[in-house]
Amino acid sequence: MQKPSIPKGTRDFSPSEIRRRNFIFDIVKLKFEKFGFSPIETPSMEKLSTLTGKYGTEGDQLLFKVLKRGAKFDKVLAESNIKNIKDHDFSDEALRYDLTVPFARYIVQHQNDIIFPFKRYQIQPVWRADRPQKGRYREFYQCDADIVGSESLVCEIELVSLVQEILNELKLRDHTIMINNRKILASLIESCDSTEYFSKITVIIDKVDKIGPEKVIQDLKNYIPNQKIAKLFEELFNLSDSPTEILHWLENILKDSELGQKGIQELNYVVESCKILGVNNLKINLSLARGLDYYTGSIFEVVLNNNSMGSIVGGGRYDNLTEVFGQKNLSGVGVSFGAERIYDLMNDLNLFPDNLDTPSKYMIVDKSESAINGLKLLHFLRSKNIPCVLYPDNIKLKKQLKYAHSNKIPMVVFIKEDFSSEMKVELKNMDTGEQKECLLSDIL
After folding, report:
1. 308 located within any domain
2. What pTM does this model have?
3. Are residues 31 and 163 in the same domain?
C-alpha cells in the first residue's frame, strides 16, 4: 500500500504549530481591531472571470483553476478542438489568489450596505500554483487590512503605523518598511519612452532583492528594446539611501511630468509624516514595483534586516480595482501580512513564548474508589476557569505521569477521597518532582 502524503507546497500542522500560528493571528487581529478595522470573509473559490486579468500575466498563470463537473465537463470535452484546447475552457472557477481582488468584488456587490470609508480586515488562506520553496507555499494564509473609499494619504500613514506596531509586538523590530509610488515608477518608465513595456519592466526590477542590481540591469538590456531604461535604473541603483538625495534626483528627472510630480509629493508627504510620528525605519526604494497590476499609488514592502526570507508584508494604493466590477471612483489602500513567512522567521529566531505548549495547568489522577470523583473535580476546576484534564484510563501511574510530562502539564493533582470543595488533594510538581498534600482551596 502506498504511503499517504499531501500535495507539494501544503503542510499539516501539529498542536504546537497551531498554537504558535494562533499566537500570531491573535496579535494581528487584536491590532487590526485596535486600529478600527472590521472583519469579513469571502469564499475560497471565486469565478474565474473575477480573478483573471487582475494580477498580470505571471499572476494569471499561478491560478489554481477548478474543473467543471459532470455534464458541463462532458459537454466541453465533446465540443473542444484538441489542437486549440485551453485549460480555462474546462474551468469557470478558481481558488482565490489573494484577498484583495475578492475584496474588491465584495465591495461592489455589497456597496449599498457599506459605510465608506470602509476599514476591513481578513485572515484567510489563499492558493497559488507556485514552485514551493522555503517561505513560499501553494497554500498559505494572508492577513489583510484595507481602507476603501478615501484618497487621503492619512490612510497610508495609518497602515505604516499598523505594520510597525504589529511587527514590534511580534518582536520583529529589526525590520525595514520600503516605500515607493507607482506614479513615480510609471513616469520614470515614460521618460525613457518605454511605457508599452511597463509590466515587463516592473516584473524584472521587482526581482532586484533576489537576483541583485547587476542581473536586473542585464535583464533590462536583454528583454527591453529601449536601452534608455537600463541606463536609468543603473543610475537609480547608484543612489544613496538618503531621502533628500533620492527626491532631488527624482525632481530633476521628472521635472516635466505632472504625474511624476504628484507621485513625488505623495511619497514625500508619507515619509515626512511617518518620521514625525516616530516611524524611523521607513526607506524609499525606487526599484520597488510590487508586480501586481492593480497598484496605482503608494506601494509598500517590509523585510527583516540581515535576513534572506524576503518580504513579510506588502501592499499599496489601488484606484481602479473596483472599476472592473462596475464601480468607478472608489480608491483603496491596503497591506497584507505573510503569516507563513512571519511564522518561519519567529520559529527560526526562537521568538515564541515558552508557555504556548502548556494548554492545561493540571492533570487529575483519580485514585479514589469511584471514577465520578475525578470527574467532579474536573468539572469544579473548569468552573473556576482553570485549564485541566483528567487522565481517563486506570493504568500504571508511571504511564500517566509520562503523559503529563510529554504534554508539558506542570502539575498533577491526585484525588483519593470523595469529592468536596473542602477536600485535601496531593499536588505533584512535574518540574521539580516535589509532591505535597494541600487543600483544594489552596489550588484555587
Report:
1. yes
2. 0.87
3. yes
